[in-house]
Amino acid sequence: MGTGDFICISMTGGAPWGFRLQGGKEQQQPLQVAKIRSQSKASGSGLCEGDEVVSINGNPCADLTYPEVIKLMESITDSLQMLVKSRVDALFLFLEDQSHPPSLQHLFGYTSLFIATLANQLMG
Fold it and tell me: Is the distance from CB of 116 to CB of 5 less than 8 angstroms?
């Protein structure tokens, strides 16, 4: 996936959360956010397509199969916390995809992430 920052995403209110996952141990792929539904809890949370899911409510995801992840997600009733590794290039993907222009919140979030990452690379 390359370099990226770890971000904690929080959502409340129960399912539907508004995102779809892909990958899993049995597919020998990291668990990633495949799709985010517009106007959903996920769309306003900072979660982005392509983010790698590290943990869900404190449960590490690296050794979970996709069916195990679905079972875990179905057990969550009200509050969802996800630790994700965000894609550094997500700002550029967002700007290239004119069919789904970024919300102001996402644009500022990605701009901040991009600036912080750039500053870290220049100073480190």
Answer: yes
- Residues 106-123 have pLDDT tens digits of 444 444 555 555 555 566
- The DSSP secondary structure of 40-77, one letter per residue, reads STGGGTT--TTPEEEEETTEE-TT--HHHHHHHHHT--
**pLDDT band per the 50, 70, 90 thresholds, residue 5:** confident
* Pairing mode, strands 52-56 and 59-60: antiparallel
**Phi, psi torsion values for 33, nearest 5 degrees:** -75, 115
pTM attached to this predicted model:
0.69
Residue 9 has a CB neighbour count (10 Å cut-off) of: 22
Distance CA 116, CA 111 (A): 8
Structure tokens at 16: 């539907």
- Residue tagged 């996936």 (tokens): 1
Q: Which residue from 57, 8, 16, 53 is spatially nearest to 34, judged by alpha carbons?
A: 53
CA distance 52 to 46: 13
